[in-house]
Description:
Elements (H helix, E strand, L loop, with lengths): L1 E9 L10 E10 L2 E2 L4 E4 L8 H7 L3 H4 L5 H12 L3 E4 L2 H14 L11 E4 H8 L7 H8 L11 H15 L13 E2 L2 E2 L18 H17 L5 H4 L2
Parallel strand pairs: 1-5, 5-6
Antiparallel strand pairs: 1-2, 2-3, 2-4, 7-8
Amino acid sequence: MRQIFLDTETTGLSADNGDRVIEIGCVELFNRKLTGNNKHFYLNAGRDSHEEALKVHGITTEFLKDKPKFAAIADELLDYLQDAEIVIHNAAFDVGFLNKELSLLGRLPFKDYVSSVTDTLAMAKEMYPGKRNSLDALCSRLGVDNSGRTLHGALLDAELLADVYINLTRGQDALLIDMGTEDADGPQVAPVVLSVFNLPVLAANDQETAAHEDILKQIDKSSGGKTTWRITA
């Protein structure tokens, strides 16, 4: 499954009032593995950022004056995103801005170009009701290192979001097994006699054991120390 983790930076908070996208960062995962096939654009929005927005991202009009406009990168971006699942934190905000940029070019809405849009903010609110669920809060809760994030940046935030998502969905992958043909009573599975096999027992080496312990510690931290093996130990 191909997933793109996407984030934007903008000149302000309202696309309807003329604010524009000035940065887009995209990070690709395929079957939950980083591919390195990422995209990053700085964009000349043709207007200044609001003071409060500038404090968040630090991207000045002077820096952007020689950067391309959205129209110049639209096809490249949409071709890259084509048919992928797009994962965004607070998707309504970013999709709203991208829809505005596309509408100014006479293009279809963002969701018409992609397979689906998943909002990790909605996921986090369901998993952690009543708690802070900003990207920074989730990084802290799930043990994701965001120490390099002094200002918001679209590519860095997309990278952090990918890490957060993997932690949010840890253990939720479906195990898809070919169950053979089905009839009215459900799938038919041929019996397997295991006694005819001499199965070797492979012990974990020190590196594998250490990696396993690290995963257990991450799960324990994300659950607030409420994992079964800690409670019953």
